[in-house]
Amino acid sequence: MMKILVTGAGGQLGTQLMRRAPDGVNIVGVSSSELDITDAAAVRDAVEPGTVVLNCAAYTAVDAAETDEAAAVAVNATGPRNLAEATARVGARLVHVSTDYVFPGDATEPYDVDAPTGPRTVYGRTKLAGEQAVLAADPSASIVRTAWVYTGTGSDFVATMRRLERERDTVDVVDDQIGSPTYAADLADGLLELATGNRAGGVLHATNSGQASWFELARAVFAGVGADPERVRPCTSAQFRRPAPRPAYSVLSPAAWHSAGLTPLRYWGDALAAALAEVAD
Hints:
The protein is of the alpha/beta class. The chain is built from ten helices and twelve strands.
């Protein structure tokens, strides 16, 4: 029986992976408190021959990383390197999840996997360092970049819009940042398809298809819960400053994913409708 080890299993993506394991797969999840990927010895003990490691562990507090770079480096760069060294040593396989933040965010068309990187935040720089460390230590590893991931629960953007719809008459949301909203359940299915197939490593992009601004996504959430989308009002990024600059454009091209024979992720609007139905239940 194939074994998959999910690191960072307590997060939104890791939780979805644990719920969606296909038949014939023994999936084991470890939270960050159960396996600290920055501990090289602990990682070596945890990675067994023949295992597929799906690394969802990450430091994702984009703004906090600007003043907490050491912690971000440890989790986003050192940890993935430890995993890659362990998988290479015992003949295991690594699928490492990365981010659109490795790009500068100033493109006008979807980023291909080989487009020039140029992160503008500590978070992005540490995630890019993680990619580079993984491929240097284990060239057979797979890097999967994704973007705008949500489940509609907890504190993600979709969940926040659901909450603000109940609490406020109107909500201002930036309309000058464009990306591809990605439902964590769909991403999990894609990662499991990749993990259970016999495919070569390298860099891939996986998001729900299509693109939207945060403003358009927020309006879609309001409409999806039966509220008036006109209650969401557009604003600019300059009106909503954050410690870490957000990419103005971070749509990722799925061309490499499709070329690998992997199932395309559905249109973001359809995925959002499914997510809202799930949380409503």
